[in-house]
Amino acid sequence: MKPFFFIAWLLLVSGMSEAGIWRDDFEDKNTKEWKIFNEDPKVEKWWIDDGEAVGEIFLEGFMSLWTTGHLDWLDYSMSCRVKLGKEKKIFDTPYLGMTIFDRGEEDTRYLFFIEYANERATIAKATPENWSIVPFPFVAEKDKWYNLRATVNGDLLEFQIDDQVFSAIDPDPLKSGQAGLIVSDAQARFDDVEIRGENIRDGGPGKPRLVELKRKLTTTWSKVKIGQLKRFE
Known about the structure:
Helix content: 10-25%
Oligomer: single chain
């Protein structure tokens, strides 16, 4: 398995080296490039506060998705900073993260999220017929900002939380789709969104961050455990 990991890393870095970058740091308070999927204003809302995006929904068993981009976006990486905000102790099952290859009304997407109550990081594949998850142990602190990165490159899926990387293989990968932020049973804060991919044009209202992608991938990939590569069933 080690040669596979090395090859996958080379493909990931080379594939992203000439990528376009779409950014949003939410400093302009403009949300016109974002849309709440299947919005229900009675239970969910997204807004900008102090240069950060805030998402909120308190309805057991439901998540709120705030998406951007185009349905033809393929093989890309999305990163952001995220922090858990308010909770309601009625359910106390908050999770937050990102959606990739999201096709909205077709109800297909990959989800990458932190589950606070269950103490795990999860990569999920959602289709109209099935919901498949690949969970990994991860204990999150509720008052801490996390740097997240979700990447889909062919059948390889990666979820990076700070310096930890979790990986999964999908033998029947989704074809393409939008990117977005997700929250469930909580209020969450997001900042510094970056989306990188070969067929993504440079743009968005955000400014470049100081962290350089290739260096960060190089330093974190060496910490991946071989046993962390799992497969969707």
